[in-house]
Write a structure and sequence with these properties.
By secondary structure, the protein is of the alpha/beta class. It contains 14 helices and 14 strands. It has 3 domains: 151 residues, Rossmann fold, CATH 3.40.50; 137 residues, Argininosuccinate synthetase, chain A, domain 2 (Alpha-Beta Complex), CATH 3.90.1260.10; 35 residues, no CATH class. The strands form 3 sheets. Strands 3-2-1-4-5 form a 5-stranded parallel sheet, sandwiched between helices.
């Protein structure tokens, strides 16, 4: 009986080559699995036939948009997860939901192995294979790029490989950038981007206009949150994926959401990527504005600490781990009171929270006002400061020999 392999398939050049390579080198039946995480019609139209034309036995397209947003994206932003201070984890957070769907199709179709098209240099091999290990450790993992029999080291070699087998492809030798797209973001790597001394090439960007060409008039958008999850945009109740899709257009028009980052990959090297996350940038800014009203100081600061670890777990492909689950339990508890509305102003590449209100706000104008209040007696601050600064006072007195 032939080996049956479930392949994480995108329809791009790499996976188009991997399908016939698996058939030829492993005498296998290939079941392609395409996860729809909002990458757009350009990548999905005709993808089933493309897989069959490449030699696949079957192709399953799984709609993951809602699960991706509700179960992966929103928990990540509620936890305050931003990798190395700037990256909203657009590629990383899609990998666990894609790996989960691939495993589910593999089990349903009787596959004994799973495969992916990730190279041996990147983070995605770690993310996919960690998901496989957690969800289906009994399945064999096949990574062609790490196989000695894989000789297709570049685009020209892969194009020649497909041409020799009469397998059609829309790929070309002139492709400049490597991209990954989903509803949350799009990333760009390769070409002139690889040199960190080169300014970002404007022709790389797809979702956002250049801030200097953005409208000269700002635009305000209003987000309503329930327990940290966006549930309405500009007064209209919408699903999470609808909110993100709408904000991608609106914020992109104002040049919001561009990040140029040299990051530390999990495998040990540095890489440079350009990221566009227009809608996500607005949502994160709005949520931070709401947190400013609702969370007390200690909780807010601890959430920041939690977010750093959560971001590293997501980036490293450690979604299906007890620690990530425990951190999410904490973050979701913290988010229980994050209800309210925030207005975010979009202007020339910036998204800034300018108005915020919540029924759970801890902000009390009658206390914070410079006018005389009844609740807070300013004289009380003197004793507080003396106790707070007592260690410094003792240190200074001992240095002078005035305390024993």
């Amino acid at each position: 009986m032939k080996k049956k392999i479930a392949l994480a398939y995108s329809g791009g050049l790499d996976t188009s080559c991997i399908v016939p390579w698996l058939v030829e080198n492993m005498d296998a039946e290939v079941i392609c699995v395409v996860g729809d995480v909002g990458q757009g019609a350009d990548e999905l139209v005709g993808v089933e036939q493309k897989a069959i034309n490449s030699g696949a036995k079957e192709c399953h397209v799984v709609d993951l948009k809602r699960e991706f947003v509700e179960d992966f994206v929103f928990p990540t932003i509620i936890a305050g997860s931003i990798y190395e201070g700037r990256y909203l984890l657009g590629t990383a957070i899609a990998r666990p939901v894609l790996g989960k769907a691939q495993v589910e199709v593999a089990k349903k179709t009787g596959c004994t192995a799973v495969a992916h098209g990730c190279t041996g240099k990147g983070n995605d091999q770690v993310r996919f294979e960690s998901a496989y290990a957690a969800l289906a450790p009994e399945l064999e993992i096949i990574a062609p790029w790490r196989d000695d029999r894989w000789k297709l080291s570049g685009r020209l070699a892969m194009l020649d490989y497909l041409k020799a087998r009469n397998i059609p492809t829309t790929a070309s030798a002139t492709k400049i950038y490597s991209r990954d797209r989903n509803l949350w973001h799009i990333s760009h790597e390769g070409g002139s981007i690889e040199n960190p001394w080169n300014a970002p090439p404007e022709d790389a960007y797809m979702l956002t206009c250049s801030p200097d060409k953005a409208p000269d008039q700002f635009e305000d958008v209003t987000l309503r949150f329930e327990q940290g999850r966006p549930r309405a945009l500009n007064g209209k109740a919408m699903s999470g994926e609808e909110i993100i899709a709408s904000l991608n257009v609106t914020a992109g028009r104002h040049g919001v959401g561009r990040v140029d980052l040299v990051e530390n990959r999990r495998v040990g090297m540095k890489s440079r990527g350009l990221y566009e996350t227009p809608g996500g940038t607005v949502i994160v800014e709005a949520l931070r504005g709401l947190e400013e009203l609702v969370l007390d100081r200690e909780t807010r600061h601890y959430r920041d600490h939690l977010g750093l670890t959560f971001a590293e777990l997501v980036y490293d492909g450690r979604w299906f781990t007890p620690l990530r689950e425990a951190l999410w339990a904490c973050a979701s508890k913290i988010a229980e009171k994050l209800d309210g509305e925030v207005v975010v102003r979009l202007f020339k590449g910036h998204a800034t929270a300018v108005q915020r209100r919540s029924p759970n706000s801890l902000y009390a104008e009658n206390i914070v006002t410079f006018e005389q209040g009844e609740i807070y007696d300013q004289k009380d601050a003197g004793g507080f400061i003396k106790l707070l600064s007592l260690p410094e006072r003792i240190r200074a007195l001992k240095a002078r020999g005035q305390a024993k």
